[in-house]
């Protein structure tokens, strides 16, 4: 009888020890895993909020600002919109009934700097489209390269 109780106690103590060991060994790991999960969730939410803000940004106002700052407002006005493009991050359509239209690809433009780079590139297409059409030269030829120099890079 006494021996039996003793065995139970030993078993309870070893279970307690195992549980305590679990807490000591696994506790910090579980806390670290939980923190990483929380961080991932936080980053995803921040990314989604950022994308949402970007999708509702006033692209036309950004184009006008670019036109004002780099072209002395001499560029033709353009309609600027989001769409799904197959390959390029952005496209400029000129000579349409509705005037000039710049389209930004939703999957390629995921940050403010992407949008700015695409708008800079497309604004140079707006500026050079007439000379490109009349001379049938490369759309990214020397007039375009000269235009893009004003942005200090090669977007
Ligand atoms: Zn281009």
Largest sheet: 3 strands, mixed
Distinct compounds present:
zinc ion
Q: What share of the residues lie within helices?
A: 55-70%
The gross shape turns out to be: rod-shaped
What CATH first level of the largest domain would be assigned?
Answer: Alpha Beta
Helix count, DSSP H or I runs of 4 or more residues? 4
Q: Rg from C-alpha positions? A: 30 Å
The figure for the number of domains is 2
Unreliable stretches:
none
Give the topology string: H per helix, E per strand.
HHEEEHH
How many E strands? 3
Mean pLDDT: 87
CATH superfamily of the largest domain, please? Metalloproteases ("zincins"), catalytic domain
End-to-end gap: 86 Å
Query: Would you tell me which CATH topology of the largest domain applies?
Result: Zincin-like
* Percentage beta strand: 5-15%
Class from helix and strand fractions: alpha+beta
Going by CATH, the architecture of the largest domain would be 2-Layer Sandwich
Strand order of the largest sheet: 1-3-2
In short:
By secondary structure, this protein is α+β, with helices and mostly antiparallel strands. The protein contains four helices and three strands; from the N terminus they run H-H-E-E-E-H-H.
């Amino acid at each position: 009888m006494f021996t039996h109780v003793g065995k139970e106690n030993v078993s309870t103590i070893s279970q307690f020890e195992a549980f305590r060991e679990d807490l000591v060994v696994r506790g910090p790991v579980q806390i670290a895993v939980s923190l990483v999960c929380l961080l991932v969730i936080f980053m995803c939410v921040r990314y989604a909020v950022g994308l949402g803000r970007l999708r509702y940004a006033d692209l036309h106002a950004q184009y006008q600002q670019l036109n004002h700052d780099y072209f002395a407002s001499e560029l033709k006005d353009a309609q600027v919109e989001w769409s799904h493009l197959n390959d390029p991050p952005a496209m400029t359509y000129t000579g349409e009934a509705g005037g000039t239209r710049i389209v930004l690809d939703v999957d390629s433009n995921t940050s403010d700097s992407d949008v700015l780079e695409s708008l800079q590139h497309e604004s140079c297409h707006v500026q050079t489209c007439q000379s490109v059409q009349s001379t049938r030269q490369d759309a990214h030829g020397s007039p375009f390269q000269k235009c893009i120099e004003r942005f200090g890079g090669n977007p």
